Amino acid sequence: MSGPREADPESESLLLKRDGSSYTEEAAAAGGGGGGGGASGDLTEMDYVDADVSVLSQFHEDALAQAGFGLFQYFLFLVLGLGLAADSIEVFVIAYVLPSAERELCMDDARKGWLAAISFLGMMIGGLVWGNLGDKLGRRRTLVSALTTNAIFAVATAFMPTYGLLLLTRLGSGIGVGGSLPIVFTYYGEFLVKRHRGRHLSWLLTFWGIGGLFTALMAWLMITQPEAEGLGTRLSSWRVFLVVCSAPALLTVFGLFFLPESPRYLLECGQDVEAMYVYQKVFRINHKQSDEYPLSEMELPAVKGSIALTWTVAVCPPCLRASETVSCSKHSQRTLKQYKV
């Protein structure tokens, strides 16, 4: 028996063009309905609550499929992969500097343990703080701020003269790492159609290992070297090593300035025109300049109408009474069956 094969891009494109304007709650509910009982066309309150999510998901998938997969996603893959490698470097780097820092700062075993663990405490804090910001400020903006925080504190670590300040900068770097780690995968996944998503997110994870290899190579080349002159002071080799290891985070921040915000995030925020601009930009990068993006802002009113309907159902008294009637009726039926009445 032959395995599953991928859909033909041309046939998929024709299907999307044909159904491109059917982004309504009926179309969304059709995919999940199946063989449920009850009168045809009856919608419970959960059907209405999920309608906007289903419609946005359908439109987003179709718009990405029309934009295609190509040069844009490859560039995004490299930039975000570099950011993931930068996070990996900040996790591994402390193991290589501990022996040298121990002698210079006169650390005992307890202090070395805290210096090794403080980054993970920062990652926990960063995950909590930037996880919420990613849904409020946007994926790209939050990722830039998290990586910038990582880079600033990573560079500052190299110039800290005391153990307390070194501990503080490692905490700050860990906060930046904890903020960028989850957003890297979310941001990349929102530029991939469903059939590409799992495979490419797995490939992105290989940059974590690349970051570890880079750290080991730089440590082998630099930490055993004598002191270096810089910025009017003499820097130990392990401090120069820390500065070099902050470079991937800075390069990632630079690369992110050439990338747009996630279109899925823009749709969820109601910024439909901005989302269409992003889809069109991805299309122009992935296709010939003479080609024209098949979807336009004309598709969006149906989406917004569906979302408005959802809010109408949620707050209007007649609709509330209808949904309560459906809910109470189903609850009564379950109660009667339970007592065999």
TrEMBL record:
Bilayer topology: Multi-pass membrane protein
Domain Major facilitator superfamily (MFS) profile: 76-341
Alphabetized UniProt keyword annotations: Membrane, Transmembrane, Transmembrane helix, Transport
MF (Gene Ontology): transmembrane transporter activity
PANTHER family given in the database record: SYNAPTIC VESICLE GLYCOPROTEIN 2 (PTHR23511), SYNAPTIC VESICLE GLYCOPROTEIN 2C-LIKE (PTHR23511:SF42)
Species assigned in the record: Araneus ventricosus
Principal location class: membrane
One Gene Ontology cellular component: membrane
PROSITE patterns with a match to the protein in the record: MFS
Localisation: Membrane
Family membership: Belongs to the major facilitator superfamily.
Protein name as it appears in the record: Synaptic vesicle glycoprotein 2B
GN (gene name): Sv2b
Transmembrane parts of this sequence: 74-98, 113-131, 143-165, 171-189, 201-223, 238-259
